[in-house]
Design goal:
Elements: H1 11-17, H2 21-47, E1 54-57, H3 63-70, E2 78-82, H4 85-89, E3 97-100, E4 113-119, H5 128-137, E5 139-150, H6 158-170, H7 178-186, E6 191-196, E7 202-209
Parallel strand pairs: 1-2, 1-4, 2-3, 4-5
Antiparallel strand pairs: 5-7, 6-7
């Protein structure tokens, strides 16, 4: 299970980081999270079709959506969600639906999306377990959830150690247990999950919803609102 001790709300920090987020994140990918990012993008390419409904929850500056549209996905099939107005402003060039909202209270119906992605965002919220519950809730039967996150895994060397310390120093996230996350997903009725092997303090997980109705993560319908 997730550690329940971290309750810090980091949304305000990402408002301030937005103008330089891409530069900082590129450094993280180059030195620590690149394998996990590559694994996630490979999963999404394998699962995505041009007309499926996709939610990128915690979309940041919109890198994944730009990549998918360039590769043929229709913009009207994609929804971007982020709690930071500054991050969503960085997505202004992407012709998709953009919604300001939190991972812990997704403003969507149960089973609303064929594919849900959450990339480098689950570790930034005060309650990752609640956010994970919400992410699973909005996956339709037969759909999938793809995650990439900062993981409490052994560092490979000095670069990994420095990246880990930099993230902790900035206070922009925490390191989650990959095994604990997989167990939490599989505790929801109708879900199965597996980790995709990668090295360093980062991980990728693929979860599939195989049931007809997931009672354990059901929530009442909430109407969509544009920011």
């Amino acid at each position: 299970m997730f550690a329940r001790h971290s309750r810090r709300d980091r949304a305000g920090q990402y408002e301030k980081l937005a103008p330089r987020y891409d530069r900082l994140h590129h450094r993280w990918l180059r030195h620590a999270g690149g394998e996990a990012q590559a694994a996630l993008e490979a999963l999404v390419r394998a699962l995505a079709t041009s007309d499926m409904k996709l939610l990128d929850a915690g979309c940041g500056t919109g890198h994944l959506a730009r990549t998918l549209i360039a590769e043929g996905m229709r913009p009207k099939s994609i929804t971007l969600l982020d709690p930071s107005e500054a991050m969503l402003a960085r997505c202004a060039d992407i012709p998709v639906l953009k919604i300001k909202g939190r991972l812990e209270a997704l403003p969507f119906e149960d089973g609303a999306f064929d594919l849900v992605t959450c990339v480098w965002a689950l570790e930034t919220v005060p309650d990752p377990h609640l956010a994970l519950t919400e992410l699973c809730r909005v996956v339709r039967p037969g759909g999938a959830l793809c995650l990439a996150f900062c993981a409490d895994e052994p560092a490979r060397g000095l670069a990994d150690c420095l990246m880990r310390q930099a993230l902790l120093y900035r206070g922009t996230g925490q390191f989650l247990s990959c095994a604990g996350l997989v167990r939490d997903i599989e505790s929801f009725d109708g879900f199965e999950a597996r980790a995709i092997p990668s090295q360093g303090p980062a991980a990728t997980v693929l979860a599939r919803r195989t049931d007809a109705l997931v009672q354990a993560v059901s929530r009442p319908k909430v109407e969509l609102e544009k920011p």
